[in-house]
Amino acid sequence: MFAFFIPTMSAMRAWIRASTVITFSYTIILLVLMIKEGKTNSAKNSYEIPGSKVGKVFNGFGAISAIVACNTTGVLPEIQSTLREPAVKNMRKAIGLQYSLGLVFYYGVSIVGYWAYGSEVSEYLPKELKGPNWIKVLINLAVFLQTIVSQHVRLLSNLKIYVNINLRLYIS
Prior knowledge:
about 170 residues
């Protein structure tokens, strides 16, 4: 509900910072736990990719499309950074940060998850964790909070579109 009362994306600075902290906390905790479990499980894992050649090709294309979809999140920092002058310099810094630091964590989780659990890894990595339950709860809570923040950012932009359309209809 908080997003409906915030006039601009720039005013959401605190929520975006909170979202960043939650994301990095989740990722770092997950990486540490996967490395710990990978050291004990790595001899038992199978790294063979199951399926026929055609299935492997289509799964590869599916993985590429998932990577492309996940890596388009750099658009938000780019848009926000172009609001200040000089726009091009700020945009390049924002995109550079997103596609360097962001990809290190994104691919880090993918590669470490594959190393720790093999090719039979779950699509939701916290399902694989064998640590204490409180850590699983903490990770799932971080995912839940991140989802709430990100969906409210989306709702804010949808609300602005709705208001703009109604305003244009009212004026014409």
